[in-house]
Amino acid sequence: MNKLNIVHALGDEVLFVDNLREVENLSTLRMEYNTITYCRGGRILVEVGGNNQVKVGAGQLLLIPAGKLVQPMLISTDVKAGALMVSERLLKSVLGNQVNIWNKAMYMKEIYVIEEAGWLSGLQSYAQTIFKGSTTPVLFREMVVSFLRTMVLLVCEELLRHEDMSSADDVSTTHDKELFNRFLQLLSEQEQKRQRVTYYAEQLNITSKYLSAISKKVSGKSPMRWITESVMQDCYSLLRDSDLTVKEISNRLGFPNSSFFGQYFREEAGVTPVEYRNDHKRIV
To answer: CA 158 to CA 164: how far, in whole Å?
Structure first.
């Protein structure tokens, strides 16, 4: 058996973890991958987005989209859990147009936990055969891509059953959803996300008015709200997990000065950056 705690595949586009308790510094993986964690026993408590605590118990799946700040708060001593982490590019490739289901559930409805389904144990055994086998199969890439597509489509099927995913009030077109998904992707790729709506609209070759219209139609939120929430994700992450000063964080995120940054942060978080850091600075 491979002794690595984390198995890397397809040029690090896929990571497979069979036992979460054996992995150090889990939070360092937070913003790079879409993560599906299966809790077979014990309890897991994570904070998602800087202020939303999510509990996961035996027989549940924890779903975390790329770009979300995730802080492990508690992993019980009896926990039995594995995780599959997939890059944004590969997830889009294997899901195709069905990526709209994942994006709606993760970013709009914020459905992070679903119940175990009957197909899960079989797929877990298959994953261990592929990723933890003593020899690498000749058709390894084809096997991994096939496995991923089956896995995430089954997850999407379960998400569609969730009561919050009712499409009765969904009047947005496929074109609207594709543009909105491109907006989310563009936003996630920016180091300095605090830009005008016009900036993102120009990147998409549409008007800011049209971007606002499709954003509200598809997600119920304005593009400015999405921008602000994405900026705050970066703020939370840097304050919690880095040793940069508030001024350095302000500069990195593109604020004109630390005073403006402090006012912006306090309006959103209800506390100053220093107060947030003192309360949430990660202790290993």
So the answer is: 12
